[in-house]
Specification:
Radius of gyration: 14 Å
Helix content: 25-40%
Strand content: 25-35%
Order of helices and strands: EEEHHEHEHEEEEH
Distance between the termini: 25 Å
Number of helices: 5
Number of strands: 9
Strand order of the largest sheet: 5-4-3-8-9
C-alpha cells in the first residue's frame, strides 16, 4: 500500500484517446491523483463535479488533477460531456495502477464480497513524492481539503 513519503509508482494509464498517461508526465509539477469506482454513479459524479468546480483554484495553486477508474475512454467521454467536467480522466485498464496505489480492495455490499476501487486521493509533490493520502474518501468537503493541502505545498 502506498503511503505518505513514498515515491510515486511507475505506472501507465490510458487517456481519452487511449494514449499513455503516467504520473511521471507531471514531473516538476504538483498532482492530485484521485481514484474512484465508476463513472456516472452518485458519489463519483459528486466528486468529479467538486473537482471541476474548483479546477481553476487548483490551477492557481499550480496543481494538476487526474481522475482514475477502470472505465474505458468511451465511458469517460460520456461522463465528461454529460456533466461538463473540467478535470481530465484516465483509464486503468489492467488495474496495475490501482494495485500499485493500493486502491484495488475487497468490498462488500448487501453481504456480497467483490473486488473494486476504493475511493482514494493522493497529493504528489513536484519531486514525485506522495505528500498526502486520503483513503475511504467521503465526498462532502473532501475536495476543499485537498485544495488546501495543495496550496500548502511549495
Amino acid at each position: 500500500m502506498l503511503n505518505e513519503g513514498d515515491r510515486v509508482p511507475d505506472v501507465t494509464l490510458q487517456g481519452l484517446e487511449e494514449e499513455p498517461v503516467s504520473p511521471a508526465d507531471f514531473s516538476g509539477q504538483k498532482l492530485v491523483l484521485y481514484f474512484y469506482p465508476k463513472d456516472d454513479t452518485s458519489g463519483c459524479t459528486a466528486e468529479a463535479q467538486a473537482f471541476s468546480h474548483l479546477a481553476e483554484e487548483f490551477e492557481n495553486a499550480g496543481t494538476w488533477i487526474l481522475g482514475v477508474s477502470k472505465d474505458d475512454a468511451k465511458k469517460h467521454r460520456k461522463f465528461i460531456d454529460k456533466y461538463e467536467l473540467k478535470v481530465p480522466l484516465a483509464t486503468d485498464p489492467d488495474g496495475s495502477a490501482c494495485e500499485a496505489f493500493g486502491t484495488w480492495v475487497e468490498k462488500s455490499m448487501y453481504g456480497r464480497k467483490y473486488m473494486g476501487i476504493d475511493r482514494a486521493t493522493f497529493l504528489i509533490d513536484r519531486d514525485g513524492v506522495v505528500k498526502r493520502v486520503w483513503r475511504k474518501v467521503k465526498v462532502p468537503g473532501h475536495v476543499a481539503e485537498v485544495l488546501e493541502a495543495a496550496r500548502e505545498l511549495p
